[in-house]
Structure formats: structure tokens, C-alpha cells
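Q: My labmate handed me this sequence with no annotations at all. I'd like to see what the chain might look like in three dimensions before we decide whether it's worth expressing. Could you predict it?
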Amino acid sequence: MIKVLVVDDSALVRQLLTSILDADPGIQIVGTAVDPYQAREKIKKLSPDVLTLDIEMPRMDGVTFLGNLMRLRPMPVVMVSTLTEQGADVTLQALEMGAVDFVSKPKLDVAQQLPDYAEEIILKVKTAARAKVQVLERRVAKAPLTASDKLSADAVLARSGGKSHFRTTDRIIGIGSSTGGTEAIKDVLRDLPPDLPGIVISQHIPEAFSAAFASRVNGITQLTVCEAQNGQQILPGHVYISPGNRHLLVRRDGARYICSLNDGPPVNRHKPSVDVMFRSLAQNAGPNAIAVMLTGMGDDGAEGMGEMRQAGAPTIAQDEKSSVVWGMPGEAVKRGYVEAVLPLQKIGMRLTELCKQ
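A: Here is what I predict for the chain of 357 residues:
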């Protein structure tokens, strides 16, 4: 049984979150709090396993409280955020400070969306309860799940039947991630040299957050980082992060690699999907590509990594100890698609070695 404390200054939101979470047999709401001061006392008294934390509250905002909490009593926290440009910046800051994940503010006037919302927050609370939490260090975001059928990459890009003839030896790196990924991506890119081959990234993240995330990553690395645009040429020393509402594919234009954005259905309930990006790399770059799977919930990207391995691409997965959630990399390892399982801090070094070969 996962014990949850709900912290929100809105009585309606507290009531709704309590109703949704308490309905799951594996979750128990042990209390609610209207602000961080009340939350502090209830944490001491009730010892919850997971906190849901509103960002905007009187007396003390959620991010300030989170910083104090992660220094003094680290625990899994799911932020409750508005999916706006301003909300994106604050939420990404919370993830940097140690929040495991986030969900959007529930829309109290849109009853038909509540089943999808309930599925999302229940899954994220259960994932947070199993996540590894450290003192004022990493944690992350994921795009909202839907209750739709789980589609494979076939829904966006058909599997290729024959072998391609590659007219270029240019390398390209593909990175996939979900829960915990925003901080893991920064850790990998931070110390990479500026002359590395182009990098494409599919991170499960909402549309309102991807541009802000790319901007934050651009400020901590020697590489040039941007949100990918359709038809954009993939250049050495540049990183292209998928928009939060499009699949990112890699296409060939002669000897050049280009970004191709696709508005197809969610794959593995995600858009962008790592499976879609990895399949496009397998088909268009083959052994010239390198696949990296970082921390994340679920199994998106596992089959795509298998296709990249079959095409001759080196494959790397983050190890369980350094992952916030060892779902996506763990599934790829379990299926036998990974050549190297490495701690997060060694993945950048391995990429640099592979690109020099």
C-alpha cells in the first residue's frame, strides 16, 4: 500500500486528487495539506511514501518547499503543474531539484477527460513510489498517457524489409528517455565535446515543455541544442530534441540526415515515441547510428533498439542503479538488445569513444 499526502491550496483539487487516488486499491491517502507549513508537520506525523505537490501556493511556493524537503528529507514527489510556458520553466526547475515526475492540474470542468487523467496520475504515483530519490539531485517528466490502445511503431513507420546501402559514413546518435530523462539527458550531454556527431533525442514530454527544456539543456553543454524542426539538417555538434506533440524521425536526403516530424498517432501511448525514432535510425543510418536508452517508465524504445542492433548499430542502456526508473532500459536489456549497460556518468565517455572509432 502506497501512502500519499496531497498538498494543494485548492479544496476542490485536494478533493479530486483524493477521490482518484483513494479509488485505487494499491494507494492510500493518509492526509492532505493546504500549504507547505502544514505539509511539513503532516510529513513528520504520517510518514507518506509519496507527495503530490502543487507549485503555486500561498506563504511558500511548491518549488521552494521542494528544495527544503530534498535537502532535509528526500522523498518521491510528483508535482502538480499547469501545462503552460511559464509552468514549464518552473516544473523543469522542480525536476532539477529532485521531483520524480509531474502531472497537469486537473481540469475540473472537463469531466470526460478525468478517466485518462486518473490513469496517468495513478501510474505516476505508483512509479514515484519505486523511484530512486537522492538529495537535491535528478528526477523528471513524462508526457501524459492516454487510455487508447497501445500502438507499435508500425502506426507511424512501416518496418523495412530489405537492407539499405549507406552512402555516408557519418555517425548519428539517438537517445530515448522518459521518467528521470530530463536530468539524465543533461548529465550525458554536459561534458560531450563540441565536435561530436549530430544527436537526436525523443523524451516523453508535453508540447508546452519541449522548447523550454531544449533551451535549458543548451545552457549547460558545449553542443548546440534546439527543439527539432521539420526538414532541419542534422549537423555535427548539434542536438535536436523532439517537440512534445510530434514523433521525431531521421530521414536521408542524399548523404545528409534530416529531421522529419510526424503527427501520427501515439505509439506505446507516447508522442514522441522512442520506438519510432529508433526505427527510422535503423532504416536510414543502420550501423552508422548509435542507440542510447536512458531512464524511463514502460517499454517504449525497446523494440526499436532491437531493430537498431539488428541493423548493426551499437546499443547502450543506462544501468539500474543510476536510473530513476529502470523500465525502458531494463526492458531493452531483458530482451537482449543491449551491448553495453553503463552507469549514467560513463555513457558520455562511451559515446565519445565510439564516435572516434
